[in-house]
């Protein structure tokens, strides 16, 4: 029988069928400081052991400061959380990239970077953007703390089989259209609940054309479309990226692995529960104007009129515009911008920084912008960027160049918006207060964010 | 986990769609390493007019009188009524912990975000999917400071409003766990032999996945 990629990976991991769910085996468990302390407590409280410590890699990312790291963490409560991760890792003998390790970074950036993320794996992390790792032909899912504890204790998860949704992005994208624009266009099309209950597989020429960085950006946003998992079939791009990564198999083992990974594609004739086709040639640079990623428009577009919407959408649009302090029918290019944030697990990889730097090169951040910052996704991304001189391009233009971490993506550390400020951000969520209470987020690609910093407004980067 | 058999109480009508986990519990409160104490910051940005920080005394906060949770008629409510896609956003369990800590045991909505839905069951909260029509009926009966009392009977899968009874669907396994207050780790560990056997075969087949 012809199988989808999701089914192939799922089947490999079934330990046992329970009544109407399955016990599936987990290969990789990534851990960070925010969602793990209560899980470790549970293990201790019940006198349980960790099933397979070598499947676990931990890293602090959400709370770490992006300035003056040598001084340590100033916020005492953040510090407790990071210290708790340290002590739990020490107590249970877990591999951790500590705050001052060059390999430290956002959990979803370092997994692939280290080759900890491999095709065919089941990967979990107490973080919804775990979907990122699906870019490698893996089944990667975000879980809650109870499930973190469950995986620690049993190496398994109890799951239902998801339905499969193929999102086929056919044709080639225009120049300057990035994976982020594809992601936002898809969410604009199917809505933030469009993927609920599904594992999405992205297919089509526009997808296979993407680099691994781009594929990660896209799968990262699958959760914003409501899907537990996003995935992309294995091809030469996947394999090329993984070769010689520190934790990837080597030598004979590599050969064996690669021949298995080649099988990790949906078979010809495999049937998906649902198929959505999107014409890549029609995708324009995307900008969100509201408080949900589905409230998105082309940069050439206008803010919609809530009055022309029906039912709860009408109320939702009204509430969003009120919060964002924007008026119906206003042009996207008239949205004021106060700050620019390039970073997060969506867009903080080396390719993102290179592309943003190209736009910024030999230009200056507009006087109307209060702050523009770049927060690399990991210590190694930062080091690579510095080797290429990207840091200098950003700094000379007037950007701040920070230490790696989640930073202003969710504003758990000191990096945050003031109430009322608008931010052009490469992150993944524009929810109310996400980047600081009262802050207003506009999700865009790194190129669009860089251009917004230079011109002080959203511009069509295709015409620069 | 505390058992869930029946829950009767007042309904809080939260008339919003797509309520996300950041709205349920803003991130400054996620720094705790405990599971309790989040209730006072449930819906913090809507509930208070000032910006809240962890460890701040509730008495020093500026209450937003317009927000439903602050209206005296909904005090001590144990059932939350809301609109579609409730709990979207992050996988953080702090959201259900905050809801539970506040005292809510049941959430009624026409749809939920996947991860949040699953997390509720793991914490003894019953999320019930109801039709759009029933959602509207309950909103009509509870808005503008009207008080709607419901009784939820999990065993018989019924919502009772004094006059009418409405049936709801729920996964058998999840129902069983809620009724018994079962911890699913203990149940999974009953399969330890199967897991070990699986692991042995798996390591032979995919040796590159299990090597450190
Ligand atoms: S960068 Fe943002 S979305 Fe990604 S893991 Fe960190 S907080 Fe979550």
Let me know the largest β-sheet of chain B.
Answer: 7 strands, mixed
Give the beta-strand count of chain A.
19
Biggest sheet of chain A, strands in spatial order?
A: 5-4-3-6-7
**Mean pLDDT score of chain B, rounded?**
92
Distance between the termini of chain B: 35 Å
Could you estimate the helical fraction of the residues of chain A in percent?
25-40%
Query: What is the CA–CA distance across the termini of chain A?
Result: 50 Å
Fraction of residues in H or I helices of chain B: 25-40%
Give the class-level CATH name of the largest domain in chain B. Answer: Alpha Beta
Which structural class matches the secondary elements of chain A?
Answer: alpha/beta
The order of strands across the largest sheet of chain B is: 4-3-2-1-5-6-7
Oligomeric category: heterodimer
SS element count, helices of chain A: 15
Protein architecture, described:
The complex is a heterodimer of chains A (464) and B (212). Chain A has helices spanning 5-12, 37-45, 76-92, 107-113, 145-154, 179-190, 205-208, 212-220, 236-242, 251-261, 311-324, 350-360, 379-387, 390-397, 446-455; strands at 14-17, 22-25, 28-31, 56-58, 95-96, 122-125, 139-142, 156-159, 163-170, 198-203, 229-231, 274-279, 286-288, 296-298, 339-342, 371-374, 400-401, 422-425, 440-443. With 464 residues, chain A is an alpha/beta fold. A five-stranded parallel sheet of chain A has the order 5-4-3-6-7. In chain A, strands 17-16-15-18-19 form a five-stranded parallel sheet. In chain A, strands 11-10-9-12 form a four-stranded parallel sheet. In chain A, helix 6 packs parallel to helix 8. Chain A starts with a helix and ends in a 9-residue tail after the last helix. Chain B folds into two domains: 6-181, Alpha-Beta Barrel (Aconitase, domain 4); 184-212, no CATH class. Chain B is built from nine helices and seven strands, in the order βααβαβαβαβββαααα. Classes of the chains: A alpha/beta (464), B alpha/beta (212). At the A-B interface, helix 2, helix 3, helix 5, helix 10 and helix 11 of A face helix 4, helix 7, helix 8 and helix 9 of B. Bound molecules: iron/sulfur cluster. Residues 61-62, 106, 108, 127, 129, 344-345, 406, 409-410, 427-428 of chain A line the site of iron/sulfur cluster.
């Amino acid at each position: 029988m012809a199988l989808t990629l999701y089914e192939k990976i799922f089947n490999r991991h079934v330990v046992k069928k329970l009544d109407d769910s399955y016990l599936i085996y987990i290969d990789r468990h990534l851990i960070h400081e925010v969602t793990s302390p209560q899980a470790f407590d549970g293990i201790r409280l019940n006198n349980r052991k960790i099933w397979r410590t070598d499947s676990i890699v931990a890293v602090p990312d959400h709370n770490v400061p992006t300035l003056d790291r040598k001084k340590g963490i100033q916020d005492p409560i953040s510090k407790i959380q990071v210290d708790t991760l340290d002590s739990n890792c020490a107590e249970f003998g877990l591999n951790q990239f500590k705050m001052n390790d060059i390999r430290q970074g956002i959990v979803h950036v370092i997994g692939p970077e280290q080759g900890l993320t491999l095709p065919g794996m089941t990967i979990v992390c107490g973080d919804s953007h775990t979907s990122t790792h699906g870019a490698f032909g893996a089944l990667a899912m975000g879980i809650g703390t109870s499930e973190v504890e469950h995986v620690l204790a049993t190496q398994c998860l109890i799951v239902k089989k998801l339905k499969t949704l193929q999102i086929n992005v056919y044709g080639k994208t225009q120049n300057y259209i990035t994976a982020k624009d594809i992601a936002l266009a898809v969410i604009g099309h199917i809505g933030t609940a469009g993927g609920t209950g599904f594992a999405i597989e992205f297919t089509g020429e526009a997808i296979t054309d993407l680099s691994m960085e781009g594929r990660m950006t896209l799968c990262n946003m699958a959760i914003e479309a409501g899907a537990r998992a996003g995935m992309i079939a294995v091809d030469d791009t996947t394999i090329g990226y993984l070769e010689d990564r520190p934790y990837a198999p080597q030598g004979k083992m590599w050969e064996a692995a690669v021949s298995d990974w080649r099988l990790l594609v949906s078979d010809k004739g495999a049937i998906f529960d649902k198929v959505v086709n999107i014409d890549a040639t029609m995708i324009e640079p995307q900008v969100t104007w509201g408080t949900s990623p589905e409230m998105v428009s082309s940069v050439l577009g206008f803010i919609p009129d809530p009055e022309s919407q029906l039912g709860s959408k009408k109320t939702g649009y009204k509430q969003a515009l009120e919060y964002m302090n924007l008026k119906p029918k206003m042009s996207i290019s008239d949205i004021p911008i106060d700050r620019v944030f390039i970073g997060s697990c969506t867009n903080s990889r080396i390719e993102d920084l290179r592309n943003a730097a190209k736009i910024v090169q030999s230009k200056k951040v507009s006087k109307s912008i209060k702050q523009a910052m770049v927060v690399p996704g990991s210590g190694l991304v930062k080091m690579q960027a510095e080797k290429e001189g990207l840091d200098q391009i950003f700094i000379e233009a007037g950007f701040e160049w920070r230490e790696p971490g989640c930073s202003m993506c969710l504003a758990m550390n000191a990096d945050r918006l003031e109430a009322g400020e608008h931010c052009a951000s490469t992150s993944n969520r524009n929810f109310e207060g996400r980047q600081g209470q009262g802050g207003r987020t506009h999700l865009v690609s790194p190129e669009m964010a860089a251009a917004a910093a230079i011109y002080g407004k959203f511009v069509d980067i295709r015409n620069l | 986990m505390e058992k869930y058999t029946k829950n009767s109480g007042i309904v809080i009508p939260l008339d919003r769609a797509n309520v996300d986990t950041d709205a349920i519990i803003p991130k400054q409160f996620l720094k705790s390493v405990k599971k309790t104490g989040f209730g006072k910051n449930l819906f913090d940005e809507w509930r208070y007019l000032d910006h809240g920080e962890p460890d701040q005394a509730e008495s020093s906060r500026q209450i937003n009188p317009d927000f439903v949770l602050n209206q005296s008629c909904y005090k001590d409510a144990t059932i939350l009524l809301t609109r579609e896609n409730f709990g979207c956003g992050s996988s953080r369990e702090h959201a259900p912990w905050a809801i539970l800590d506040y005292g809510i045991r049941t959430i009624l909505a026409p749809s939920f975000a996947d991860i949040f839905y699953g997390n509720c069951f793991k914490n003894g909260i019953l999320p019930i999917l109801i039709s759009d029509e029933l959602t509207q009926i309950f909103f009509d009966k509870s808005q503008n400071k009207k008080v709607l009392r419901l009784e939820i009977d999990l065993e018989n899968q019924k919502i009772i409003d004094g006059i009418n009874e409405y049936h709801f669907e729920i996964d058998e396994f999840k129902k069983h766990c809620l009724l018994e207050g079962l911890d699913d780790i203990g149940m999974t560990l009953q399969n330890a032999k199967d897991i070990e056997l699986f692991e042995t075969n798996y390591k032979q087949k995919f040796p590159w996945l299990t090597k450190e």
